[in-house]
Every structure is written in structure tokens, then in C-alpha cells.
Amino acid sequence: KIFVNTLKYLQSNEFLLDVDLWRLFANLEELNKISLRFLKTFFETVKEHVSKSDSPVDFSSILRKFFQGDLCPTHQIYCLNYTSAVFYLENLRQREDFGIYLKWCEQNEQCKRLHLPELLIAPLHRLTRYPLLLNNIWKRSTDETEKGFIWSLKEKVEKSIRDLEGKVKWLDNFQKFRQLQEVIIWPQVWDRDKRFFVPECLKQSLRENGSENILSSANRLLLHEGRLTLAESTRLLNVYLFLFDDFLLITKIKRNKKKHGGSDAGLIPVCPSLTPDLQSFIRERGFCTVLDQPIPLDRLILKNVDPVHVTVFSLRNAFLIQHENRYRQCIAVFLLQAQTETAKKTWMSQIEMAISNYITQHKTKKSIVFCFPAESSEI
């Protein structure tokens, strides 16, 4: 309330007008009202029972009203906005005027030295405690009908939380991929390889098949990412690899040479679930240019570089990635070096695991297709 009301007051006096209250606090006020109503009703029932020892404790009607009503859905709306709110808050904190507002609110003794991110997460923790509350009521219930009802209610709340976790993961993955779409640049084929000549009059028709849509799939997962060094014939190149659950993407790191000053420096929205290395790179307005076509995991051959070659060719922590076409011809080879032996082992194990999982899933899908199962009305 301190943060919300202070921001409302500042905006009424034409300060911080561009700060979006909903993006930061979502339906927090509605959630407060419903939670407070639940709490008051709950304690009023307890109070009435204590003052009149002969009156029955009618918990069932209270629990039914709130847990089958707006309590869990309101929590879900807030929780689904939470990641986005943290994302938005991190960008706003870079601003001097918003920083002053935060500091002023945090100094209020009611905040108990807690910062806004620590307060924003509280409703998420509260939602996970509801099954514990219901379980404790169930343990102490004596009426079998009431006991059965409370147990079914507890299971319903737990299912609601599991569904929410799935939605939050999906949303987090969606935001991550939307960020990657902005950072990863897909060069045209004639820019990538000078052997291909395309007249200007034909370039427009080839541009229309947008490669960037590859990352628009909501079902794709990013398994591992990080910096490596690519050994070329005449130089060592800094590259950034993205290992997805179906292909590997090798990109070339491009830093923006222009220095951005002013109050908007560092205010580029950055997804908090990306690695800190990539987050700082995005804030510097860098981008990753795709070096070669994506390597499907079922066409990727991973080879360890023998330690003998380390001394002969000065290769440290190196491994080889081979890209084969559908006819098992090698069409590309990438000699990569990690900073440490541990980083190399991590990369190799992650790639091997991703290949194994992809091939297993692919075989399962093929077997399902050829089984011709009977149609189900549940699908």
C-alpha cells in the first residue's frame, strides 16, 4: 500500500506519469480486498464459536465461498504478471527519479527494511500456504462429510497451483524467446557466403522467408547457452552458442561501438531468466549474428579433441562439432574452445544429453504415427 499509494500521489502531481501501475502491481488491490474479506470472515466465525461455545463452527461455507470463488483465480492473475513485473521493475530502477521514489518508500518503518522485490513475491508465497491451511483444518475436523469436502478442496487448490506453475514456466519461456528474437540477427544467404550471387531485383523475394520465425515456437526450449571461441583458419572468433532442444545455433558476437549516454542508458528491457552474461550484453546494445545455418541435433556429431593436439596445435579445452546433411555428408565443421576444462565438459555433456533426448522423442513420435491408434473423444 505504501508503494502503490505513494506512486498514485506522485502521478496525481504529474511525477512518474510514464510508470504503468498495472505492469508493476497488477491486481494487487483486488487481491488485498479478497484476502482481507476471507480473513475477517474466518476470524469472525472463530470469535463467534469462542463466545458461544454451543454454536457450531461453520468453516465449510467460508472455505467453499472463497476457495471456489475468487481467491485462487485472483492469485493466479497476480502470479502470472509477477515475472513481467520484476522485469519491468529492474528497468525502472535504473532511473534516478524512480530510484528516489523507491528509497523514500523503503525507509518507511512499516516496510521493515524490506525492498519492493521482496514484497512483490509475498502473494506467491501466500498461495502456496493455502493447502497447508486446508490440511490443518482437515486434520482437526470431526465430521466425515466436512472432512471429505475439505480434502477435495485442498486437492483442487493444489491442482490450481500446479496449473499455475505450468503457465508461469510457459510465460517465462515465451518472454525469453521474444528477447532472443530481438537479439539474434539472421543474415541473408548472400551476406553469409560471398559465393552466392543474387541480383538486386531478386533479393526482395528471397527476404520474405523470415528465418527469425524459427524462434517463435512456444514449445521450443533453450537448454544451454554461453560464450566459446571458434578456431578459424587465420583467427580466433568470439562466438555465442544457443543449445535448443532440437538444434544448435552458433552466432558471432557483435558489440555496438556507439556509446549511449543520457538518462536512458541501460534501460533496455532484459528478461531476468536469461544468463547474467547475456543480460549485460543486451544492455550494452550488442547482438548475435547467426554464423551458419542451425544444426539439427540428429545431424550433429560431437567429437572430443585429443589432448595430444593441445600441445601440437595450441588447442585448449577444445571439441569439434560436425554438421551432416541427410545423406550423411559433412557440410560444416566447427572447432570450438572453452575457457576451462570444466566448461568444455559441461558443453559436451549438455549437447550429448540434448541429442539423446531428441532422438528418443523422435523415435517415440514415429512409433505413435505407425501404430494408428483408435480415435479418442478426449483429445
3D architecture notes:
- 54% of the residues lie in helices and 15% in strands.
- With 379 residues, it is an alpha+beta fold.
- The protein has two domains: 1-183, Dbl homology (DH) domain (Dbl Homology Domain, Chain A, Up-down Bundle); 189-200 and 218-256 and 272-368, PH-domain like (Roll).
- Strands 1, 2, 3, 4, 5, 6, 7, 8 and 9 form a nine-stranded mixed sheet that branches.
- Strand 3 (236-244) and strand 4 form a beta hairpin.
- Helix 4 packs parallel to helix 9.
- The protein is elongated and about 90 Å long.
A few lines on this structure:
The chain has 379 residues and is of the alpha+beta class. It has helices spanning 2-12, 21-25, 28-51, 59-67, 71-92, 96-106, 116-120, 122-140, 144-183, 189-192, 200-207, 276-283, 307-313, 341-371; strands spanning 184-185, 222-231, 236-244, 247-254, 287-290, 295-296, 300-304, 318-324, 330-337.
Write the layout of secondary structure elements.
Layout: H1 2-12, H2 21-25, H3 28-51, H4 59-67, H5 71-92, H6 96-106, H7 116-120, H8 122-140, H9 144-183, E1 184-185, H10 189-192, H11 200-207, E2 222-231, E3 236-244, E4 247-254, H12 276-283, E5 287-290, E6 295-296, E7 300-304, H13 307-313, E8 318-324, E9 330-337, H14 341-371
Helix pairs in contact: 1-6, 3-5, 4-9, 5-9, 8-9
